[in-house]
Amino acid sequence: MEKYRQIKIGIGSEAFEELLKEVNLVEELEKVKNNLKSSSKVHHEKIKFLRSLLDQELKLEWIIMRYLPVIPSGLRPVTKLKEENTIATTQKNNLLQRVILAKKRINEYQKESEGSPSFQNKVKGLLQELSGKDGIMRRHSLGKRVDYSARSVIVPNPNLLLTQIGLPVRMALILYRPFIIQKILKKKIVSTVKEAEKIWLNKGPVVFSLLDKIIQEHPVLANRAPSLHRLSIQGFYPKLTTGNSIELNPLITTPLNADFDGDQIAIHLPLTKKACEEIKERILSSHHLIDPKNGFLIDAPSQDMILGIYYLSKENKQENPIFFDEIAEIASKKEQIQQSEKKIKQIDEHYLQGYYSEEESKQKKIAVWEEYSGARASSENLTQLFAMRGHTTNYLGEIIETPIISSLREGLSPFEFFTSVYGAIKGMTDIALKTAAAGDLTRRLVESSQGLTIIASDCQTSAGKLLKETSELSLVERIYGRYLAQDILDKKTPLLVRNTLLLEKEIEIIQKSKINSAWVRSPATCELADGICQKCYGLDLSKLGETVAIGTAVGIIAAQSLGEPGTQLTMRTFHVGGIAGEEEDITQGLPKVKQVLDNIKPKKEEKAILAKIDGKIISIEEKEIKQVGEETKVYQISEEKIVKVNEGDEVKKGEKITTGKVDLEDYLEIMGRDACQDYIKEEIRNVYSSQGIDINEKHIEIFTRQMLSKVEVIDNGDSDYLIGDIVNYQHLQKVNQSLTASKKKPVAFKNIVLSLKDLASHPDSFLAGISFQNTLKSLVNYSLYQPVDYLRGSKESLIAGQLIPVGTGLVEREKYSKKRLGQNFLFDKNYLHKIVDCCSIDTNSVIIEVGSGYGNLTNLLAETDCQKIIGVEKDSNLFQWLVKNNKSERIIYLKQDALTID
């Protein structure tokens, strides 16, 4: 028994804590590093985990919680009910109360082995309170309650100006109450607030005269929910009305996505002078006449307005009524139907003889009827009225093989009516189900791109995208407002040089020279790691002929440009019904967008086989083919798939050999990074353009950039990275440049495709990350690997109650940075002063740009006359590159871990 006397026996978390205390992290890290045999992902994750614990000076035993976190009392209110004389409280207080009672009970019965009794009823814990739509992060930090607001139904008033909104007097009196009382006291009509309130309650002539003056100085914000894009919130000057409804100029309904069938609008009253100035300068409806997604006029007259203008300007207004039975019939309809039926019989015969599979037979029949009915034409409504309704879809979205031959004018038979009901039901259910799906897509679009802003004038890249004329878009439409990436030559003579902005004059030169392609700068190829430069983005589409300004949130604009029409398309299903054709139904279009942007891997049976090399189809056989030599490729194709090629066909690398969905990762591996970006862009653009929606392709290019913004390290070379690390592509390119210049081994990597969910779940900000999804996992990961948030993005700044670095917020932050030393805040003032002391510089003339890129700091040189600009960089590889490429004496780079305060 002597040898067992030193053994300690313990139970529960205390015993586990003792074991964790005995772990030596330094020794453990050395053991893992020396284990060269293992090179698995788990092995590298372990090294990363141990390094993070040591870097952040975290102890392993801190995993055990010794203290119960208690959130502020404002988030767990207690209310006394007057009627019942009882206290109403939240589940959070009940939880804390039960924990305290359980602790008391444990103290009383400490000797008993059972411990505290378990509770059956589940209550919300701290984690549940943080996460979800109704959690603290999204409900209280991202969504702010507004006190001064109102809501009412909208009605048209064409006599209002574009900048005016009709506000009911009853509503205005309550909204502007504080300002009215202030004016009464200022004019010394009465001396106390109570007396002023009495005058306001009586609503005498004095009150109305003051209200008329106040509304001229205080514009309001009108918001039509759902707020799908920035045009959903606009500023207006109020005009008092006697009714109970809010009056609106009919031209404003398009940007607000409103109509006059019972829609409501919320009115918000800004209180501060600065807020009122911002509305007048930036948010007033007269500043939002152009749609940011395509640069088209959005407040243009439409529908009955154009019909009214036509009628007013018509010379002869004599009415000539046309009766329904006078509408001429299509003479050749019977003959064409007979011809189509003959073709159908022929297809059936070929199917029975074994020429076609069942699926091929079905598709060929559908194609015959579509060819006759003109289902693909733009005049679809007239086709249905006078020719035939054509194919409809069932409740699963599949095309019903038998078409509806009757037109709406002729009337449908009972069987045809029953068949068309499928599509009608589908159209109704899609409104409820698919609108939510499109809304979720919009949220993920915003979450994944909200950090992208314009941060510099030029990244100096020579890369770009080759744009050509297509069947749908001319070259002029595609390149307008972009900067050239390469010179445009005419017989070796440069017509236009690189970095020329393509406006009307330049476009005219290109048209005269009959050039059909051009290399232009693109957000997808911009070399800045933390944003995009002005030249890679080009013109601001919402302003006439203006280059995009520094600080513009182009990521959010791109997300809204794709999300807003996506949501509208789901609603448009209601009008289209169940007519077949992929272009006509967003239930086929929206899943396509989600499939591409979410990088959803197709099932094995749905996956298309792609050609891995350029070549010629030698043979297609039902037996197994053996590969001969390296120049031939053999593809095994299952029976379910339909082969798209024939023997002797020429195929190019990346082309589909079979039908099915393209796996983006396979396409990236075969075609490379640039081709994969172009494929994603074309797939998304085709879905929107098939629905008649014009979206400028630079918005889509922002998402192709984001989806391929990360790479995976497969050989770390002479860098500090670990194999398996997922790092920023632009950062790694700079690190490799530095390593190559120092004659060291560069990092080898492979490109990866990230989904919107991946991008939104792993941003650089921990506040943005934990407020999206998987709160617990995100909290643990960020506390280990990224415990400091520098509040660089809009979302994290909003959560922390800071001005967002966009628009006027960016201007204010820059002003503050010059006064208070630091554009991006450091949480420790001692740390700040240590930087100042080590550089021997004046504290009143410094801007500190924490973790910034080289381009951002050089851009600041032109904007400020400060003595020094200091860049603090955490990444050691990037730090070396920045120091080496620094060409200004006014810029100093410091490594963050060298300045740690004890």
Automatic annotation (TrEMBL):
Keyword Transmembrane helix: no
Keyword Coiled coil included in the entry's annotation: yes
Pfam families attached to this UniProt entry: RNA_pol_Rpb1_2, RNA_pol_Rpb1_5, RrnaAD
Coiled-coil segments: 78-112
SUPFAM superfamilies reported for this sequence: beta and beta-prime subunits of DNA dependent RNA-polymerase, S-adenosyl-L-methionine-dependent methyltransferases
Record GO biological process: DNA-templated transcription
Domain of life of the source: Eukaryota
Keywords for the protein's UniProt record, in alphabetical order: Coiled coil, DNA-directed RNA polymerase, Metal-binding, Methyltransferase, Nucleotidyltransferase, RNA-binding, S-adenosyl-L-methionine, Transcription, Transferase
Protein name: DNA-directed RNA polymerase
Organism this protein belongs to: Funneliformis geosporum
